[in-house]
């Protein structure tokens, strides 16, 4: 399953999300939203207003959510 973490610089929730994924061995791609206006606009259009935004082929959510991150282990 492809997992993408859309983040921005100096974002504590973004760093916590990536740290937890690293600890759990979850592979992901990181996209810096300050460098990708097209992706930022797409995510805003989906209703997301804060970073990070985590996108898989099954779901998308925003913010640091430790339980959802742990749930990715069985899919990664």
From TrEMBL:
InterPro entries: Glutaredoxin, Grx-like_ET, Thioredoxin-like_sf
Gene3D superfamilies, A to Z: Glutaredoxin (3.40.30.10)
Sequence ranges assigned to domain Glutaredoxin in this UniProt record: 3-59
Gene Ontology BP annotations: cell redox homeostasis
One Pfam assignment: Glutaredoxin
Superkingdom: Bacteria
CDD domains linked to this entry: NrdH
Single GO term (MF): electron transfer activity
PANTHER family: GLUTAREDOXIN (PTHR34386), GLUTAREDOXIN-LIKE PROTEIN NRDH (PTHR34386:SF1)
Name of the protein: Glutaredoxin-like protein NrdH
Species assigned in the record: Castellaniella defragrans (strain DSM 12143 / CCUG 39792 / 65Phen) (Alcaligenes defragrans)
Native organism taxonomy: Bacteria, Pseudomonadati, Pseudomonadota, Betaproteobacteria, Burkholderiales
């Amino acid at each position: 399953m492809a997992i993408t973490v859309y983040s921005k610089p100096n974002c504590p929730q973004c760093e916590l999300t990536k740290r937890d994924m690293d600890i759990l061995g979850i592979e992901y791609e990181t996209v810096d939203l300050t460098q990708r206006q097209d992706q930022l606009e797409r995510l805003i259009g989906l209703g997301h207003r804060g970073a990070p935004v985590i996108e898989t082929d099954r779901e998308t959510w925003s913010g640091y959510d430790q339980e959802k991150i742990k749930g990715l282990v069985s899919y990664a």
